[in-house]
Amino acid sequence: MIAERGSGTSLAILAAPHRDPTTTHREATTVTAAERRSTWAAATLVAHLVLAPLTALILAGTWHLGAAVWQLLLAAGAAALLHVGVSLAGRRPWAGYGIGALAMLVLMTMPFPGWSPGLLPSAACFPLTLWRLTAMVRTRSAVAALAVTAAGIVFTELVAWARLPAGVPGWTRLAEGGLLMLIAGGGWLAALLARRGHEARVRAERERLAAAVAGERAGIRRDLHDVIAHTVTVMVARIEAAAVTTTDPATRRELGDIGHGGTLATWTGDMVFSPAKGVAAIVLTNSVGDPALLTANLLAGRLGVPATPMSNPLTVVNAVLLGLTAGMSALLVTAAVRARRWVARRRASRRPWLVPRLLPLAVVTVLGVLLPALMGVQAGVFSFQYWIVTAWLLPLLVLFSLTCCVLGTVALARRLWCLRRAGHASTEPASA
């Protein structure tokens, strides 16, 4: 009775409609896609609430310096287009990137008194559109977008070089163009690594779900086999007993054949189970240091130009910078603390990709060392003509640059040390 009830339940489970693992995977990744959309919506909201008011304040300040009305209107319109591009990039990345590229080209090439409007805070919307495009489209399309960005940087630097005043060396344009190329390429690479990490997690989730479905079906088959085998064993025992007790030779032969067939029905082959192995990836967002006021003041003294005061009152920009510094510190400290676990997951993955995964940390460290002195030299050569930069940007980003330099070096050294220890640990048993 128990055997009949168990076999009926197992047959009912096997008769249930089959669900494709890809369908289950699609349902499981819906939350992930929603989370990615919510993250982009939050980033867009922060860009609108923080960058737009700062841009309006800076444009209002430049009006007192004698900027023409048409220049202010053109800069404000380009900044507004940058914010429109960020809003469109969530659903139409190519449209958002195209609008942002055109607006950025206008900002970088238009003449302005004493400084470039490409330094407006709203200009940060363009890297966001490039990030979104790289994270959503294919690699070939992302490479094309990076090529367009590089061509735009070359064009704007050529225009700036043609407008250089007498006495200003031309290598400054080359240095600035190289810096912009490095920033754009680093952000693009970080976005590409983030997309590949997401794809690896999706593949691992698909493999895990497929393995879970296969394991569940194998368990059902195994349980059903046990129930049927027990039932058939009892039937075989009764048939063999009847074959022994009967006196008819023909009946004995028939019962023997039936019993042998029941014995063969209880045979099963081996089942092999293999757990799914996930692929883990740690992708760090690329960030940079920025000009050091100390280097600029040192060159200012030698060039005979006034030095910028070191005072830096607490403002909204300071608060935003402190938040960014705290976030970068948390990321780099986490990368250093979890280095051993990162090495273990890298060794277990099928595609280690060691160099691309260490590159963001190396870029953070190198930029944290080089950019302060490089931009300080540029500010000294231009005799602080870009007063907006020296007034609020240069003093604020010194702490951020030092954070990237020190903590990036610690995190990178920690990962390399853990890799070396893991390599020694893997070679010792082989040599023994």
Descriptive report:
It comes from Nonomuraea rubra. The chain crosses the membrane at residues 40-63, 69-89, 94-112, 118-135, 142-162, 174-194, 279-299, 319-337, 358-380, 386-413. This is Signal transduction histidine kinase subgroup 3 dimerisation and phosphoacceptor domain-containing protein. GO terms for molecular function: phosphorelay sensor kinase activity; protein dimerization activity. The chain folds into 2 domains: 26-219, no CATH class; 282-432, no CATH class. The two termini are 59 Å apart. The chain has helices spanning 2-14, 21-63, 69-89, 93-109, 125-136, 139-162, 171-245, 249-265, 293-303, 316-337, 339-348, 354-381, 387-393, 398-431. With 432 residues, the chain is mainly α. Helices cover 77% and strands 0% of the residues.
The helix/strand class is mainly alpha
Q: Report, as a whole number of angstroms, the end-to-end distance.
A: 59 Å
The poorly predicted ranges are: 1-35, 266-292, 310-314, 379-392
User: What is the count of distinct domains?
Assistant: 2
Number of helices: 14
Q: Mean pLDDT score, rounded?
A: 68
Shape: elongated
**How many beta strands in the DSSP annotation?**
0
Order of helix and strand elements from N to C terminus: HHHHHHHHHHHHHH
DSSP strand content:
under 5%
State Rg.
Answer: 33 Å
Q: How much helicity do the residues have?
A: over 70%
- Main sheet attributes: strand count, strand direction, barrel closure: none
